[in-house]
Write a structure and sequence with these properties.
Layout lengths: L1 H12 L14 H8 L4 H15 L7 H20 L17 H18 L6 H4 L2 H15 L9 E6 L4 H14 L4 E4 L8 E4 L4 H4 L4 E4 L6 H23 L1
Helix pairs in contact: 3-4, 4-7, 5-7, 5-10
């Protein structure tokens, strides 16, 4: 009977990853799954989430948590009961955020597995490390939002030309970094990067990152801007996940 119930649950929804899941975790079919005694999959999901919460300060609302929980549960059923590539069973997932975010989460998950694999009881599931890591990363990549989970990047833009060039420079910045950037004309405690077309006195004692570019930013200036944004993003993610 237990195997019959498990098979029914897997076939009904295990391979349809829901990035914006609408149901509550205590829905009827989830109750059926969790009521099965000695369910290694449910135990492994709870074990993963416990490890994850101890190595992250990420706060998810109810809908986000439900989506994360159910997708992980579906994935664990897949690797426990079926062999072969998951790509044959569900649509290919596409990264929705910055590539640096993907790289960071992959690295984070790789380190998290050092703790997950300490449980001999659940190695039947966590032995599928590469498949799990790729999918865990996809789930988080689709959940995380700049300005909600990841703080917005605050940039101070200083120009000798004032408002005349301010809007031009701001458009250049926002084209370079397509996530949300808060661009202002003054340095504050939240400022993570100062960009200027001259070396002003107020920058001298500023401890944050700086970029001094030409009146007309060159390709090298834009390249350096991208590098600085990447550094700031990794710094923010490190504060969130370690």
């Amino acid at each position: 009977m237990q195997k019959e119930i498990m098979f029914f649950c897997i076939v009904s929804f295990s391979f349809e990853y829901q990035f914006k899941y609408k149901e509550r975790v205590n829905s009827h079919r989830i109750k059926i799954i969790t009521s099965v005694p000695n369910n290694l999959v449910v135990t492994s999901v709870n074990y993963f989430l416990d490890c994850f919460s101890r190595h992250s300060s990420l706060e998810l609302n109810e809908s986000e948590y439900n989506s994360f929980y159910i997708n992980i549960q579906n994935l664990h059923y897949k690797v426990f009961y079926f062999e072969g590539s998951a790509s044959k069973l569900h649509r290919k997932k596409e990264w929705g955020k910055h590539y640096r975010l993907e790289e960071f989460i992959l690295s984070y998950m790789d380190k998290l597995f050092e703790e997950l694999n300490q449980s001999k009881e659940m190695r039947k599931i966590f032995n599928h490390k590469q498949e799990l890591i790729v999918n865990y990363t996809a789930f988080l990549d689709n959940l995380l939002e700049f300005g909600q989970h990841i703080p917005v990047l605050d940039v101070a833009l200083l120009s000798i030309y004032g408002d005349r060039f301010f809007e031009i420079y701001r458009r250049i910045i926002r084209r370079t970094w397509y996530e949300n950037v808060n661009v202002t004309g003054q340095i504050t405690d939240k400022t993570k990067l100062v960009i200027a077309d001259r070396y002003y006195d107020e920058i001298e004692n500023c401890q944050t990152r700086k970029l001094i570019w030409n009146d007309e930013p060159t390709p090298r200036d834009i390249e350096r801007l991208e590098e600085l944004f990447d550094e700031i993003l990794v710094e923010k993610l490190t504060n969130l996940f370690y």
